[in-house]
Design goal:
Elements (H helix, E strand, L loop, with lengths): L2 E7 L3 H12 L6 E8 L2 E8 L2 H7 L8 E7 L14 E3 L2 E9 L2 H9 L10 H12 L4 H11 L2 E9 L6 E6 L4 E5 L2 E5 L11 E4 L5 E4 L4 E4 L5 E2 L3 E3 L15 H7 L1 H9 L3 E2 L5 E2 L8 H5 L3 E6 L1 H18 L3 E5 H4 L10 E7 L5 H12 L3 E6 L5 H5 L2 E4 L12 H20 L5 H22 L2 H11 L4 E6 L2 H17 L2 E6 L16 E5 L6 H13 L3 E7 L13 E5 L7 H19 L18
Parallel strand pairs: 18-19, 18-20, 20-21, 21-22, 23-24, 23-25, 25-26, 26-27
Antiparallel strand pairs: 1-4, 1-10, 2-3, 2-4, 5-6, 6-7, 7-8, 8-12, 9-10, 9-11, 11-15, 12-13, 13-14, 16-17
Helix pairs in contact: 3-4, 4-5, 7-13, 7-14, 9-13, 9-16, 13-14, 14-18, 15-18, 16-18
The chain binds 5-amino-5-deoxy-1-O-phosphono-D-mannitol.
């Protein structure tokens, strides 16, 4: 949440900052602002709304080679220009991503120094604190500030008397840095570094990056210079662009077959049998052999991938698997020991609650494995084991390709685990793996039918409420379909285990209410059809999703619309059905004239708790 960028180099800083902010805008888009060192001192420009609004406000003459920029997702203080970053107090101008939890106490203590905030933000208090501790020695001020600040932060700070220098420090919130011929850059996400370099480093917590146009010096708080661990980005600018698609979301929906292939490729061990292999990931079979219980924890869509993982694992491994939303896991006093494996799932690898859940799991002695998309992210670095999904950069706030890549990771893990535990033979695993290998092609076939979903979405566009129903895997997928729809269409929607409807929710099913019924699983197919009849009998407008090869015959007029997925083992139906749900959400949002990629009140990376 909140995108921050700092540039110091040989190009026009304001232009570079604006470009970077546009790339980071998915992290927050309530307001934006920049501050640059110019001939006349530090100049600040801020604006409510998106980066484009800020760009319109920039004075033509603001010559500078060094500055900082921020795009905000409001936490403390409403959406207003005065609350927009950068914030300034005395010598200090800064931008911040995170939350200062003890801001109130700090503000009280600072009152008698004559520093009175003008905004309602925690960030301004941090600027006031650092200013109060600054007497020309930035390292000393930062060292003392860190002792006092509680909460999460990534700061880029300019001191008025240190022209063309930016100091950065972080705790919790992300910050990555790179050097290039054009200059030095720091940002919340490597997406904003790509145009400069493919080599970057993650600033370790509590270390300071002193950024000048020729170098970035990383220091411990006591001033000791350290060498950062360099990482490489394996994709290029085009991966983070729309490439002819109207929205990132549509592009990312289309990228799913490829994302799955990329996630599978390094884990395919070809021989007589096709087995999953995690040698390159450093995950040994002992991990599975030493596990008698699995806990999965994550937030939002990543948690829905975990729900699918649970069904799959319990079915094939026959060991207890629980799924808990990370924000609850943290406070639920989980029962874990060294035989427990905690799987955390996160696209960004920075979600604050998921990170805290991971830390708790480690503290309780459990083994931890992260399914993460962003290389070098906090969750990836802090887990015992990492299984990277290779979905590439996901920019749209609504997660699509990350979700199906996370499913792929769960399938791979389950198949290997089942093989190691002797629950499946080599031949059985190999057959499943062949099925998984074909998923990309099946998804391409569904994508070819996107016009059908486009047409169908017209029927959903006026809806006020909408329900998704399903059983077992279809229920887990219903939860994902529902979050996708509500987050980008603003239609109230709920996902229900189909058998649960009669216990309350059926009272909401009245004439014309759309119900999307997923019936892809043979073992519960007949039961699902009964549930479809129940909602139809109450006047619901039913969109039924089944799969070619569902053997039970159904009456023609059982639903208003019928979508049929290509034939596959039931286990793989979630991949193809996910595309249908994503496309329905996408086109409905477009018909409603909404901002598909950046829905209101949301942000891509939730780095606050
Ligand atoms: O980066 P993460 O996977 O940890 O993010 C978790 C959720 O914030 C995220 O999946 C969110 O639910 C999506 N916007 C849903 O589309």
């Amino acid at each position: 949440m909140c995108g921050i960028i700092g540039f110091c180099g040989y190009l026009d800083a304001k232009e570079e900052l604006v470009k970077g902010l546009a790339e980071l805008e998915y992290r927050g888009y309530d307001s934006a602002g920049i501050a640059c060192f110019t001939e006349s001192g530090i100049e600040i420009v801020k604006s409510v709304g998106k980066v484009a609004e800020l760009e319109n406000k920039l004075p033509p003459r603001m010559e500078s080679g060094c500055g900082i920029g921020h795009t905000r997702w409001a936490t403390h203080g409403g959406v207003s220009e005065v609350n927009a970053h950068p914030h300034q107090c005395g010598n200090v101008t800064l931008i911040h991503n995170g939350i200062i939890e003890n801001y109130h106490e700090l503000a009280k203590a600072l009152e008698n120094t004559g520093r009175i905030p003008v905004s309602r933000t925690d960030t301004e208090i941090a600027a006031m604190l650092i200013d109060s501790l600054y007497n020309g020695d930035a390292m000393e001020a930062l060292r003392r500030a860190v002792e006092r600040l509680k909460g999460a932060y990534a700061f880029c700070i300019m001191f008025a008397d240190q022209k063309d220098v930016i100091y950065c420090i972080r705790k919790g919130s992300p910050l990555v840095c790179c050097s290039s011929e054009e200059g030095s850059v720091v940002a919340s996400d490597m997406v904003a570094l790509l145009r400069y370099s493919k080599e970057y480093f993650v600033l370790p917590e509590y270390q300071v990056a002193k950024v000048t146009k020729n170098t970035i010096t990383v220091m411990e708080l006591d001033g000791t210079v350290v060498s950062p661990v360099m990482l490489s980005i394996h994709w290029d600018m085009s991966a983070a662009q729309k490439n002819g698609f109207k929205h990132y979301m549509l592009k990312e929906i289309h990228e799913q077959p490829e994302a799955i292939r990329r996630t599978l490729a390094p884990r395919l061990k070809k021989g007589k049998y096709l087995l999953p292999d995690f040698s390159e990931d450093g995950i040994q079979d002992e991990l599975f052999q030493d596990t008698n219980r699995i806990m999965i924890t994550a937030c939002g869509t990543a948690m829905h991938a975990g729900m699918m993982g649970r069904i799959l694992m319990e079915r094939l491994l026959r060991i207890p698997v629980n799924v808990e939303v990370a924000s609850e896991f943290r406070y639920a006093d989980p029962i874990l020991d060294e035989k427990s494996l905690v799987i955390v799932v996160s696209q960004s690898g920075e979600t604050a609650d998921t990170l805290a859940a991971l830390r708790l799991a480690r503290k309780r002695g459990a083994k931890t494995l992260a399914i993460v998309n962003v290389k070098g992210s906090s969750i990836a670095r802090e887990s015992d084991y990492v299984l990277y999904t290779h979905a590439g950069p996901e920019i749209a706030v609504a997660s699509t390709k990350a979700y199906t890549a996370q499913l792929t990771a769960f399938y791979l893990l389950t198949f290997r685990f089942a093989y190691v535990a002797g629950k499946l033979s080599e031949g059985q695993v190999s057959d499943y793996m062949k099925g998984l290998n074909e998923v990309g092609e099946l998804m391409e076939r569904v994508l070819e039918q996107k016009d059908k979903m486009k047409e169908l979405s017209k029927r959903l566009t006026p809806a006020q409420d909408l329900f998704f129903i399903g059983r077992s895997m279809d229920y887990a997928l219903s939860c994902e379909g529902s979050i996708k729809l509500k987050e980008i269409t603003y239609i109230h929607s709920e996902a229900y285990a189909a058998g649960e409807l009669k216990h309350g929710t059926l009272s909401l099913i009245t004439g014309g209410v759309p119900v999307i019924a997923l019936a892809t699983q043979e073992d519960v197919f007949a039961k699902m059809i009964s549930n479809v009849k129940e909602v139809r009998a109450r006047g619901a407008m039913v969109i039924l999703i089944t799969k070619e090869g569902n053997t039970t015959a159904i009456e023609k007029d059982i639903c208003d619309e019928h979508l049929i997925l290509p034939a596959s083992d039931d286990l793989f139906a979630p991949f193809t059905a996910a595309i249908i749900l994503q496309l329905l959400a996408y086109y409905t949002s477009s018909y409603r004239g909404l901002d598909v990629d950046q829905p209101r009140n949301l942000a891509k990376s939730v780095t606050v708790e």
